[in-house]
Structure of RFX-type winged-helix domain-containing protein:
Amino acid sequence: MIARASPQAVSAVQWLLENYETAEGVSLPRSTLYNHYLRHCYENKLDPVNAASFGKLIRSVFLGLRTRRLGTRGNSKYHYYGIRLKASSSLLCQSQDSGGEEGSSRGGKRFRVSQTKLEEPVQATPLQEYLGDSSQAIPELPEVEIPPGLPLPHMCSLEDIDTFRSIYREHCEAFLDAIVNLEFATIETLWREFWRSQENTNGDECEEEKYLSKTKLFMISKLRPVQEFVKRVDFLFYQNLVQVLIPDVLRPIPSSLTQAIRNFAKGLESWLSSAMVGCPPDMVDIKVSAVCALGQTLRRYTSLNHLAQAARAVLQNSVQINQMLADLNRVDFHNVQEQASWVCECDGGLVARLEADFKTTLQTQNSLEEWASWLKAVVNSVLKPYRGRRGFSAAARQLLLKWSFYSSMVIRDLTLRSAASFGSFHLIRLLYDEYMFYLVEHQVASATGTSPIAVMATKSCGLDYSERNGNNNNNNTNINNNKEGESESLTKKMRLS
């Protein structure tokens, strides 16, 4: 009995026939071709076939199609050799409309198609205009250093290690393509493809199996040098993805994009955990730890952005500013300072200077960006004596704790006095706490020579960028965990008042 082709397979074959034809001397990267198929399915609300099935369909449509590994050692990619775009393909037409077929420009978000390298569609959606430069998002992949004498798994070779490095880069490229095109739903598919949790992974039929079998992939993933490679690449790559999605935490972005990013962040851990079922536990821990840090960072930054836009309206309202000044002048700062000094051992002179600066900056009705510059100057001033010293991370944590305690005391005083501008102050306080955390996070990352995402990562993958005798930097995240839902409800109240 002949098995009936699924609707997804029929659709994939039709798409291939409409856009490609056999041709000698021409090659297309395997990963980008499949990624364009995923995009086609996403745009047309179709269920895609997995990578393994897609590879079989290509070979069934284009008989005699060959696969070649092109590029220098360590940076090679697998290409389909003997296939090209049709002259009538809409992808090719888009490329010609953009003024040529050479190369690509991820940073400008205008991507072109060539016969040797298939890149992104030229037309950018309005939401994509809010994204940052993605041209350098894929980091320079380090070599996988295998120490002399380290035994390799049975039937695995250094060539297999090199293959892992190559397909990991391909995976990152496909990941970036999906992010740049805001096709978050394809990320789960990409993870399932790489870690072979898709069906039909028969060694003779699956494209991935021809380059690195699932058995070898899992065996190699147990090697400590490979795990260190993945950890290092993921933290660098995910940090770059944050910069692509949210290039400026204070810049207004559409609520639809904010919500899409938050939904994406919410699904990351479950998608990856599902895709890595059966993988070596140590590798799972490393991957999930990095992805959790990515998700947490995206949630925090979108909350910060939401707070910034709500606070911008307050800072531009002279009536509210005048009321805030009047209420602030009634605060018993002497009592606040006494309590803060006893609990936090705050420098009285520094606190007095910050209080005066705050009032002056509020009175001059500075913009949000000017307030941000003031906060940055505060962080730089307080942490300057510790820069280059072992206690920098501990000092940074203390700054966050003292700032949070002192500001909470001021809010307490305003609350007891039933200040008319309490809502405005509470919103500003949330924003400044969140932005202060953002600044300190980046300062610690710079001081420790790592990325902010790595600073915030859990200890589950053996990372701790605080001092050896200090606590994990993750303890600082508790300051922010209760603010995400608070900001949205407060903003609604501010609109009603």
The longest strand covers residues 20-29. The CA atoms of residues 111 and 122 lie 5 Å apart.
